[in-house]
Amino acid sequence: MLISCSKGGGNAPGYTYTYKLTGPATSIVQVQYTPTMTDPNMTEVPDDIEYEEDVTPPWEKTVTLHKNISGAGFSASVSDGVPGATYTISILNKDGNVLKTGDFTLDSYGHGVLLLNYYRN
To answer: What is the dihedral of CA 105, 117, 39, 62, to 10 degrees?
Structure first.
């Protein structure tokens, strides 16, 4: 489970982020991410909120986080892919600018994983 850190301050009602996955569409990729959370008292992801999916690239999801949540997390994992295949995951702001990005290449067994965390200042 990905959990966001909380802090007070700021006057914006919330922040919008887009998680983006690119790579070959030949494998199922398990993604986990900080989901939409707009309750100012929420400090952990409740059990009834979806934050994990099995997807095929290309994939993206847009979420909104309350201003008190200071960051977003996004991970991707492949466990039965094509060895040597490369995937890119990114966290973008509401204007589509990349805040954090990274690549991972599947090993000789077709496995690979990457976790990104973005924290606002």
So the answer is: -40
Burial class from Cβ neighbours inside 10 Å (0-12, 13-18, 19+) for residue 11 reads: exposed
Dist. CA 75–CA 25, nearest whole Å: 17
CA of residue 111 relative to chain centroid, distance:
19
Q: What angle do CA 60, 36, 16 make, to 5 degrees?
A: 65
Tell me the pLDDT tens digit for each residue of 42-77: 777 778 888 999 999 999 999 999 988 889 999 999
Q: Whole-prediction pTM value?
A: 0.85
Total residue count of the chain as it appears in this document: 121
CA-atom Rg of the chain in angstroms: 15
